[in-house]
């Protein structure tokens, strides 16, 4: 839940319209399905693994593998990570993976994965709002309409309604997590991170994973760690191998092989996948009010993404999937 390459990367590697369509659609489909399923995997993983320690293990393992693979590729001399790059990776990793993903993982103890996915899907609303307020980015009228619709949809989703009441603390933490992810994503465009997307992302994973371990220790999670079930272990393995490695690699490749307008559609397909999986595999309740709120949020995100495509951060940090 978000866990976000910049315009310069896209400009350096313009979309190649001649890329084989079947390969493009296969990569896009993997991003749709895998990132949409991470909310389900998180819910299963934290059944027997404390949330911060689970997230820490995920990003430390994935970051180590990704760094070992990517650091030997590309411009090894001109783009060598130094103290400034590691400090930037720590700052961005804290916002994206501790505040963003960590908040989502913690909240899934209290809020159904489908609701979490819908709340996280509103993250482009936060990015547009922060960009307008903090960086004076202009918004066209469809984006303004999208902001109004989106926040109305969020209010509709979390409103008390009989047996469908959403835990207010959990929902609040998810919204703060999305805000943290949006702020970290915007900051990453200006941070002195390595220009190689996979190198920068692996550094953010390592720093964020270490900070998540500290959060877990401070909150007493080691004392609550008991026997880990096979289901939780498999879910954690899925998050590492597919959520943080396979799908993100497919996403970075898509930025060079397909128009950004097509790639950005993951922002409003992922929550649909998450809701269907939560209902089908976890038995999560899906109400008419929830479907209406979700439709409003997805429509709002579509308006914003189509009007103001949100470029991924400069260093290729994970997009909103890693929020979930």
If you had to describe this structure to a student in words, what would you say it looks like?
- There is one protein chain.
- The protein is an all-alpha fold.
- The chain is built from 14 helices and no strands.
- The chain has one domain (7-323).
- It has helices at 7-12, 21-45, 51-70, 83-107, 113-120, 123-135, 141-158, 168-188, 197-218, 221-224, 230-257, 260-263, 266-282, 288-307.
- Helix 4 (83-107) packs across helix 9 (197-218).
- It starts with 6 loop residues before the first helix and ends in a 17-residue tail after the last helix.
**Mind summarizing the main beta sheet?**
none
C-alpha termini separation: 2 Å
SSE order: HHHHHHHHHHHHHH
pLDDT averaged over residues: 85
Q: What is the count of structural domains? A: 1
Radius of gyration: 18 Å
Tally of contiguous helical segments: 14
Structural class, by secondary structure, is mainly alpha
Topology, number of strands: 0
Q: Percent of residues in helical segments?
A: over 70%
Low-confidence stretches: 2-19, 310-317
Measured by DSSP, the beta-strand proportion falls in under 5%
The coarse overall form would be: globular
Which key terms come to mind for this protein?
single chain, 14 helices
List the helices and strands and how they pair.
Elements: H1 7-12, H2 21-45, H3 51-70, H4 83-107, H5 113-120, H6 123-135, H7 141-158, H8 168-188, H9 197-218, H10 221-224, H11 230-257, H12 260-263, H13 266-282, H14 288-307
Short description:
With 324 residues, the chain is an all-alpha fold.
């Amino acid at each position: 839940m978000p866990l976000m390459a910049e315009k310069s990367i896209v400009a350096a590697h313009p979309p190649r319209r001649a890329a084989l369509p079947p390969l493009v659609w296969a990569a896009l489909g993997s991003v749709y399905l895998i990132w949409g399923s991470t909310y389900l995997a998180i819910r299963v993983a934290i059944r027997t693994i404390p949330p911060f320690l689970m997230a820490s293990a995920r990003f430390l393992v994935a970051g180590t593998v990704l760094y070992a693979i990517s650091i030997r590729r590309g411009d090894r001399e001109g783009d060598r990570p130094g103290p400034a790059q590691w400090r930037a990776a720590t700052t961005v990793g804290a916002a994206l993976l501790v505040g963003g993903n960590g908040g989502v993982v913690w909240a899934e103890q209290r809020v159904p994965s489908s609701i979490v996915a819908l709340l996280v899907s509103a993250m482009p609303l936060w990015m547009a709002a922060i960009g307008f307020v903090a960086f004076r980015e202009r918004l066209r009228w469809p984006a303004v309409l999208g902001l109004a619709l989106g926040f109305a949809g969020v209010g509709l989703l979390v409103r008390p309604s009989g047996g469908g009441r959403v835990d207010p603390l959990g929902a609040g933490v998810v919204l703060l997590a999305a805000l943290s992810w949006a702020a970290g994503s915007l900051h990453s465009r200006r941070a002195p991170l390595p220009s190689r997307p996979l190198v920068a992302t692996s550094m953010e994973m390592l720093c964020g994973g270490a900070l998540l371990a500290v959060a877990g220790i401070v909150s007493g999670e080691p004392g609550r760690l008991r026997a880990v079930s096979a289901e939780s272990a498999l879910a954690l393995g899925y998050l590492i191998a597919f959520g943080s490695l396979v799908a993100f690699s497919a996403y970075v490749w898509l930025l060079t092989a397909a128009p950004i307008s097509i790639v950005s559609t993951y922002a409003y397909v992922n929550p649909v996948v998450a809701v269907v999986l939560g209902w089908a595999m976890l038995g999560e309740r899906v109400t008419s009010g929830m479907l209406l709120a979700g439709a409003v949020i997805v429509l709002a995100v579509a308006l914003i993404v189509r009007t103001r495509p949100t470029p991924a951060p400069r260093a290729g940090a994970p997009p909103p999937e890693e929020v979930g």
